[in-house]
Amino acid sequence: MSAATGTAAGAAAPLLEVERVTVRFGGLTAIDEVSFAVRAGELLGLIGPNGAGKTTMLRAITGVVRPSAGQVRLQGQALGGLPIHERIRRGLALSQQLVRPLRSISLEENVALAAGRAKTVRPWRAITHVDAGPERARARRELERVGIAELAAQGAAKQPLGVLKRLEMARAHALDPRLLLLDEPLAGLNSKEARALADTIAEINRQGMTVVLIEHNLGEVLRICTRLVVLDNGRKIGEGEPRSVMADPVVRAAYLGTAAEAAHA
Q1: pTM (2 decimals)?
Q2: Which of 29, 32, 137, 205 has the fewest Cβ atoms nearer than 10 Å?
Q3: Count of domains in the chain?
């Protein structure tokens, strides 16, 4: 992201606002009064050690779980009480860690189904019973965006994980979101695949898509993210420029286990 873009993003109202969100499961507090904002054009890393509450926070944003307290707003509008499909309609899209394509059809058809959501509440009918030319053309563009256009006609069933991860991102982007949420897209990939997919995420962001990235691969997070929010045990313990945040003793202790270990790292 250019300096000019970053300045404009900083001056504008936040695209996403998370305000004192708390999520409880019985007697367990998974998220404890967490607040942060995402500005349009950002590539924000939402990170933390295992069990920090990152995925729960994403589920609270998308409506999979209902916060016990607090607010989530998208472009100033509260999302509380809205079902998942309505949040998608308002501009959220989630690329999940566990990819679940329709394996009996091609990559192009998988993405075309996502692109057809706006045409009808029955996207499969939109592809099979009306002119699907625009959706298929959109699908090819999205597959090109994520670097797998040459595989468009191939079935999803036999594709390796790296291809399926890119397919999942193409399907999410085809929904025309204002905000793309990525849940551990690099998980399960080797270092070469992870770096290549991280480059693709950064390029999608440079093209104008706002991205929130949950990821354990800190090397790639630090390389591509413009800002970090760090969670630990459900609380926010850090926020800001990536290198400065990772130099914070509290953040280092959360990752390394103890303050003493952090001091000597």
Answers
A1: 0.85
A2: 137
A3: 2
